[in-house]
Amino acid sequence: MSEQIKKFLYLNRRAPYGTIYAWESLEVVLIGAAFDQKVSLAFVDDGVFEIVKGQDTSESGFKNFSPTYAALGDYDVNQLFVEKESLEERGLSIDDLMHLTWEDEDEDWAEKDSIRVVSRSELSEIMADQDVVFSF
Amino acid sequence: MSEQIKKFLYLNRRAPYGTIYAWESLEVVLIGAAFDQKVSLAFVDDGVFEIVKGQDTSESGFKNFSPTYAALGDYDVNQLFVEKESLEERGLSIDDLMHLTWEDEDEDWAEKDSIRVVSRSELSEIMADQDVVFSF
Amino acid sequence: MKLSIQINEGPYQHQASDSAYMFTKAALEKGHEIFRVFFYHDGVGNGTRLTTPPQDDRNIVNRWADLADEYKLDMVVCVAAAQRRGIVDEGEAERNKKDATNIQPQFRISGLGQLIEAAVQSERLVVFGD
Amino acid sequence: MKLSIQINEGPYQHQASDSAYMFTKAALEKGHEIFRVFFYHDGVGNGTRLTTPPQDDRNIVNRWADLADEYKLDMVVCVAAAQRRGIVDEGEAERNKKDATNIQPQFRISGLGQLIEAAVQSERLVVFGD
Amino acid sequence: MSELHTVNKSPFEKNSFDSCMGHVLDGSAVLLYEDGVYAAIKGTAMEGKVTSAQGVKFYVLGPDIKARGIDAARLTDGIEIVDYAGFVDLATEHDKVVAWV
Amino acid sequence: MSELHTVNKSPFEKNSFDSCMGHVLDGSAVLLYEDGVYAAIKGTAMEGKVTSAQGVKFYVLGPDIKARGIDAARLTDGIEIVDYAGFVDLATEHDKVVAWV
């Protein structure tokens, strides 16, 4: 659809369910995956809660959209940066997060981790390196 | 409209203009003044910014609703509690606030201050003494 | 006990309307009386019949409408807030010269006095917002 | 320079739409090109023709419509977000069997791809939200 | 009078929980729901605020912790889980409800 | 690349300003607007955060401080006032805009 290849970062700073931002942001990521851009997601502040495992909305009446994160790998969205300090402040570690993976076509479809835990200063550098940052 | 007399507290915790809560809350206070209830307002957290003097929206395109606070006295709404700690955290003192007054019918229409600066613990007691607390 | 509910946010964007619905339903099922549900601020957006949420998600507006039918709930949308945000019934359309309405029939548009009255008449006012 | 604007909140409740309008107007007056204004989340509420704000206040919807007329702005309302919140044009009304529309004519309903395209084609994307 | 205070915002994002804690009196209760349930997680800066509140009873809404993947074992000690019916009971058993929206 | 970060929420209510300050790099700029302008007031806990940010230039939107009754004399030293046209200039002069909504 376009000749330019841009680096897109989706900045996720909100908890899921209390507001719809996380979910509708994910809808943008899925649609955007059809465009040939270099895409990554950052989970910062309460955004880290979006990918906590074991979400179960059966008693809440609203839809559990967390399984969609596991599908991102199939859409070639496999650069998920999670901020270490944000996890720690919330009493979380990587073991509390969903195990999100993708299959590397170039290495005989080897399964690889999509999530990379990075420090706040690393994430700042990653953000600075982008062409577009989406905030929701 | 009702035989019961209740103590109503309007809890104002939001800054003006960034969101409409402060303004639409004030609309409730004005309508509510027509009912025979015992009404008071509390300004806590960013709510103290609502009654800062010198508000001027001429370059913003939206309506300056702050003059309405000065009219509250005419509606017999004259119990405005402002939390001391909230002011201090925001670098404000009572001198930064509008001078809001009412005229006391029982004392030959003497002009009296509507605003009373109270401590957080005093305000907690005032809240506890209410029948209804409105939050916006 | 007699309760009233105030909802300050619209459907889907915030959980407020979901929480208020679950609370109201639970209160009714326990035999409490809901004197009134008052929709204020963006909460007026719960009263439009024009939403079409995804098939696999809850329909917030219809859910309120069904609860109102079942329990004869009085669901009031604030007129001033509705005018700012474009929620319109027949009377409002006529008054403000609008060529369409969008209110869901189980809701009615009325003034802020209805919120004050609800607070006066009810033993508890429970507020749901952002 | 070519810019695009994203607006995540509806009119009046948050200042986001006001700020976005003032920014967009200033950019146009400086001779910049606005590739697209994209309304997402509750931002879709800026695109209804049914609002009647108080006489002494700004009319947010009409203001956007006038700016669009003057500068031929492309103002897009996200279809998925609009369906959740009840913003409807002729096509949507037919598809989802709704008996009324409420879109303001200067806005058009389209998909999220329009936001991605705006980000690709524009030199800057500026986001206004809560 | 005894009050039920409700908090529905994340304590990491907004000041609602802190502000509530600054105004809650001995004998009152706090219900954490929606994103407010994140204040109930053990091992964060919130734990101390919960455990040091004298004479205040804390509740958390079960469906909201479940939706967010928070196991009951991770809650700060002494916080009781209620469902929506329990929320209704809390609202009626206390003299009024104060919402820290 | 140099970035323009925008903050539109009160630092006393939400964590947007703090989060922005944790991610802003030397050579970038921060524009405070809407309720974000409250972070520009001298004599609060925010003043030190502004003055200690190395190599970061701060701006505040004039119409938004005026609306809120904040006199220019109350701003933390070094913060520059811009109007909407200036906001546009900042957005175009930096390589991208990051909104801390």
What does this structure look like?
Chain A contains four helices and seven strands, in the order βαβαβαβββαβ. Chain A is α/β, with parallel strands linked by helices and 136 residues long. In chain A, strand 2, helix 2 and strand 3 form a beta-alpha-beta unit. With 130 residues, chain C is an alpha/beta fold. The longest helix of chain C is centred in the first third of the chain and has 14 residues, at 16-29. Chain C is globular, with a radius of gyration of 14 Å. The two termini of chain C are 26 Å apart. The longest helix of chain E is centred in the C-terminal third of the chain and has 10 residues, at 84-93. A five-stranded parallel beta sheet of chain E has the order 4-3-2-1-5. The mean pLDDT of chain E is 97. The chains are: A alpha/beta (136), C alpha/beta (130), E alpha/beta (101). The C-D interface holds C 10-13, 41-42, 45, 48-54, 61, 80, 83-88, 92, 96, 98, 100-102 and D 10-13, 41-42, 45, 48-54, 61, 80, 83-88, 92, 96, 98, 100-102.
Q: Using the coordinates shown, work out and report the CATH topology of chain C.
A: Hypothetical Protein Ychn, Chain: A
- Largest sheet geometry of chain E: 5 strands, parallel
Which strand order do you get reading across the main beta sheet of chain E?
A: 4-3-2-1-5
What's the N-to-C terminus distance of chain C?
A: 26 Å
Approximate helicity band of chain C = 25-40%
Assembly status: heterohexamer
- Succession of helices and strands of chain E: EHEHEHEHE
Total number of beta strands of chain C: 5
Report the major sheet of chain C. 5 strands, parallel
Shape of chain E: globular
